[in-house]
Amino acid sequence: MGEEVCLITGATSGIGKATAMGLASMGASVVMVGRDRGRGEAAMAEIRGKSANASVDLLLADLSSQEEIHRLADVFKESYPRLDVLINNAGVIRSKRIMTADGIEMTFAVNHLAYFLLTKVLLDVLKASAPSRIVNVASGEQRNATIDFDDLQGEKGYKGAKAYSQSKLATVLFTYELARRLEGTGITANCLHPGVVGTNLGSGVSGVFGFMVRALTPLMKSPEKGAETSIYLASSPEVEGLSGKYFIKKAEARSSDVTYDERIASRLWEVSAELTNLPAYNL
Ligand SMILES: NC(=O)c1ccc[n+]([C@@H]2O[C@H](COP(=O)([O-])OP(=O)(O)OC[C@H]3O[C@@H](n4cnc5c(N)ncnc54)[C@H](OP(=O)(O)O)[C@@H]3O)[C@@H](O)[C@H]2O)c1
Q1: How many whole angstroms from 280 Cα to the centroid of ligand 1?
Q2: Smallest CA separation from ligand 1 atom 37, residue
Q3: pTM above 0.70, yes or no
Q4: For 217-236, how does the pLDDT look when each residue is reduced to its tens digit (9 = 90+)?
Q5: CA angle, 30 as apex, 60 and 214 as ends, to 5°?
Q6: Are the beta carbons of 106 and 58 closer than 8 angstroms?
Q7: Whose CA is nearest to atom 1 of ligand 1?
């Protein structure tokens, strides 16, 4: 990579941080997004030092807030002339149902709506920079999910694992729908499962399951291994022009049957547009 500008959300920890490190080491200009100044500046300093690349910056935004997502896009566009790669990576699992400042269930807001909205508000600069790429970090958990349109935000009954799986299924459906709508623009959109990776993701999980996740974390894949497919989709000439696919271990894979249902993807798009106050968002 040379002049390319890559924006990565959730770059303060785990897979996102390793992705930022990998792309910085390849010479890209990396814009990390984090919500905490202390964690963000520490990660940025580490990446600048280890990659010997000074073009690593930090922008702050809490992606559970739609106002902050709009502000993030504005600040980005004021500071950078182009955007070659957008990596939507930030994610959470929460045992308890928590609401965002916008009144939306946290898992759905951060893992799905933030990807949807950040992509929308950066589309103009992605289009102007084409060929450009969007990489969405999904999960193998998409296989264990359905989209419950009657209770998208767990109002009737909340389970952290169910909310997480549904949000990751939403990421795959969103990616496929986005790829269809972006045909002919020079922007590609793909998604991936990074594997089972030892990160901070389990820190929001309480009870026995949370204890087990944290106990097993050291035995899981390293964040560097977990970042390989994100880096591949962001940078490899092998996937130039390829769009609307799901990847595992740098290879195209089949996602769950429901992800190929275009009516569900289109309905999810409409609901997501409503929840992000974009009623006429059609691409
Ligand atoms: N680990 C796995 O086994 C696994 C498997 C499949 C998919 N994934 C996916 O991989 C992605 C990265 O997760 P990870 O495993 O690397 O977990 P992680 O270490 O917990 O990293 C998550 C990142 O998201 C950021 N984040 C969370 N909420 C945010 C918010 N409201 N605003 C801005 N940033 C926020 C975190 O920031 P802070 O540092 O401020 O908390 C952190 O940088 C997620 O989408 C996850 O679902 C992970």
Answers
A1: 30
A2: 10
A3: yes
A4: 888 999 999 999 999 999 99
A5: 65
A6: no
A7: 197
